[in-house]
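Hi F.,

I've been meaning to write this up properly since the lab meeting, where we talked about keeping a consistent format for the predictions we share between groups. The idea is simple: the sequence comes first, exactly as it goes in, then the structure tokens exactly as they come out, then a line or two of notes. No screenshots and no reformatting. I'm using this chain as the first example so we have something concrete to point to.
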Amino acid sequence: MTVISFNNTNYAMMAEKCFGEEHFEKMVIPTPRAISNSCGISLMINDDDVEKAKKLIIDRELKIKGIFTIYENTAIQIF
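Output, unedited:
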């Protein structure tokens, strides 16, 4: 599972809108505990869309905390 996390909900909602405009398959989810113990929302995207997501984040200057791969309750930051 690939998850994009944010420092606040406003950034998450702005990103969700941008990803929708680009027709990404995505889902708004609670931020996994492996990433943060605090409340918040994240976007889950297809593993195959990571490079496309990085480009969108850079092109649209989206503010993110990071992109993480989640495996067995462990988060590995990949961007």
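Notes:
The longest strand covers residues 66-71.
The chain has a mean pLDDT of 95.

If this format works for you, I'll send the rest the same way.

G.
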